[in-house]
Amino acid sequence: MKKRILKNIIILNLLLVSNVNFAQTKGETDLTLWNSITLDYELNKKWNLGLEGQFRFKENISVIDAYFTEFSGEYKLSKGFRIGAALRYIRENDNKGNIQGYENHFRFHLEAKYKHKIKDLKIGYRLRYQNKNELGVSYDEGDFVNQNLRFKTSLTYNFKKWSLDPKFAAEIFHRFQEGKDNGFNKYRLTFGTDYKIKNYGEIGVYYRFEKQLNVDFPDTTNIIGLKYTYSFK
Predict the structure, then answer these.
(1) What confidence tens digit (pLDDT) does each residue in 159-175 have?
(2) Taking the C-alpha atoms of 47, 53, 57 and 58 in order, what is their torsion angle to the nearest 10 degrees?
């Protein structure tokens, strides 16, 4: 039974990747690198707090893309069901166009999560509302709030006596922003794994594929992610 479930997951992932590669057209393609460090604090049985710093590179990992600091909080409503929120301050490197340089952005999100298990398979769902805008630029100067609804589904298979459990996630974005074509505008597919180091936290690695939707020439981004998380009470 376990082997059949895992086989179906692998086949599904391979089909998704094949369809993604087949569907690519003339849009731009980039290779990026995302590095993050997260501190996770369990305040009590209901509350968790988090502090994350992330550094990103773009243009085939040759140029700084952005770096940010995020503070988050999560509340457990019932078994498997949580709600959360986060505040993020971002420095983005705009190196295109007539006006270039680092820009200051602020982003917040609200989300609801639900997780459950089917034997050794963990399944998670997340619905997130995201709101982002540039600091120091007014509405009259063209700073329109960028809003997205994001829905994510994740799968983790637990192998006994194996510390590198495979993870897969699929996420779709729905944008509603003034001055833009609104609707479903991109999706992400993520494959990765985490490894726990006793008394020293957890390290993770993942590959993420991102592609635009509903445009004539969709851009695609290949993302390599490295992360470290330390949890304490």
Answers:
(1) 888 889 999 999 999 99
(2) 40
% of the chain with per-residue pLDDT over 70: 87
Region at 2 (left for phi over 0; alpha for psi -120 to 50; beta for the rest): alpha
Query: By the 8 A CB rule, do 29 and 20 touch?
Result: no
Q: List, for residues 28-39, the tens digit of each pLDDT value.
A: 999 999 999 999
d(CA 117, CA 154): 12
Burial per residue of 195-222, b for 16 or more beta-carbon CB atoms within 10 angstroms, e otherwise: eeeeeebeebebebbbbbeeeeebebbe
- ∠ at Cα 197 (193, 200), nearest 5°? 125
Are 220 and 209 a contacting pair, CB within 8 Å? Answer: yes
What is the model's pLDDT at position 204? 96
Residue from 167, 85, 86, 78 nearest 114 by CA: 78
From 216, 213, 159, select the one nearest 189 (Cα to Cα).
213
Task: Please say if the pLDDT value at position 25 is more than 70.
Answer: no
Tell me if 5 sits within 8 A of 123, measured CB to CB.
no
Angle, vertex CA 142, rays to CA 27 and CA 58, nearest 5: 35
**110 with 86: CB under 8 angstroms?**
no
Tell me what pLDDT residue 8 has: 52
Q: How far is CA 159 from its chain centroid?
A: 24
Tell me how crowded residue 3 is: count the other CB atoms within 10 A of its CB. Answer: 7
Predicted TM-score (pTM) of the model is 0.85
